[in-house]
UniProtKB/TrEMBL annotation:
Span list, region Disordered: 1-24
InterPro entries: PurE_ClassI (IPR033747), PurE_dom (IPR000031), PurE_prokaryotes (IPR024694)
Protein name per Swiss-Prot or TrEMBL: N5-carboxyaminoimidazole ribonucleotide mutase
Organism: Hymenobacter glaciei
UniProt xrefs under SUPFAM superfamilies: N5-CAIR mutase (phosphoribosylaminoimidazole carboxylase, PurE)
Transmembrane segments: none
Lineage of the species this protein comes from: Bacteria, Pseudomonadati, Bacteroidota, Cytophagia, Cytophagales
Protein's job: Catalyzes the conversion of N5-carboxyaminoimidazole ribonucleotide (N5-CAIR) to 4-carboxy-5-aminoimidazole ribonucleotide (CAIR).
Pathway: Purine metabolism; IMP biosynthesis via de novo pathway; 5-amino-1-(5-phospho-D-ribosyl)imidazole-4-carboxylate from 5-amino-1-(5-phospho-D-ribosyl)imidazole (N5-CAIR route): step 2/2
Biased composition (Polar residues): 1-12
SMART domains, sorted: AIRC (SM01001)
Keywords: Isomerase, Purine biosynthesis
All copies of domain PurE, residue ranges: 24-174
Entry similarity comment: Belongs to the AIR carboxylase family. Class I subfamily.
Amino-acid positions noted as binding substrate in the UniProt annotation, renumbered to this chain: S32, D35, R62
Length: 183
């Protein structure tokens, strides 16, 4: 998709059939399998940027001990950014942030249609001072992956270059539409 789609990690397959690339530096986690259809977009973006990732389920309510272990071991295992998705009372990003100093990006998921995901958004953005969760828009796992890539690009010229090319593809798309509208 991007002009220089790097092929250093999983070159094909969906997030479902490629749960982990080699030496992951981004951990994508979510509370339930029902979140995967949203969260797989983060894996798609990371693959396109050539950022190695792992993707798995970590439920704050159903597997709380696993959540603690995952968060506490994340840095030691080489992860540098975590992307955590959850719907409803979305405690996963906030609780994971409490157990690690790695940056945590939260993806609120609209799984409780009656209140349209507002519960999830509020669970993530209203964090106490000192334990932030960088929250992206509702269901926008792709933006979480772009933000994770931007964080990693601070010390990585290849990623910074890929991000610039990505931005240029977005700009080109707008310019093409402007041209089409002129006709
Ligand atoms: C949360 O509850 C999950 O993140 C999911 O969005 C929501 C519903 O989970 P399921 O009942 O579909 O497993 O923990």
């Amino acid at each position: 998709m991007f002009p220089d789609s790097p092929a250093s990690t999983a070159a094909s397959g969906s997030a479902d059939d490629r749960p982990t690339t080699e030496n992951p530096i981004v951990g994508i986690i979510m509370g339930s399998k029902s979140d995967l259809k949203i969260m797989s977009a983060a894996a798609d973006i990371l693959r396109q940027f050539g950022v190695p990732y792992e993707i798995t389920l970590v439920s704050p309510h159903r597997t709380p001990h696993r959540m603690v272990e995952y968060a506490e071991s994340a840095r030691k295992r080489g992860l540098r950014v975590l992307i955590a998705g959850g719907g409803g009372a979305a405690h996963l990003p906030g609780m994971v942030a409490a157990f690690t100093n790695l940056p945590v990006i939260g993806v609120p998921i609209n799984s409780t249609l009656s209140i349209q995901g507002l519960d999830s958004i509020l669970s993530m953005i209203q964090m106490p001072t000192g334990t932030p969760v960088a929250t992206v828009g509702l269901d926008n796992a792709a933006n979480a992956a772009v933000l994770a890539t931007q964080m990693l690009a601070i010390g990585n010229a290849r990623l910074a270059d890929s991000l610039e090319k990505y931005r240029n593809t977005l700009k080109d798309r707008v310019m093409r539409t402007i041209e089409e509208l002129r006709k």
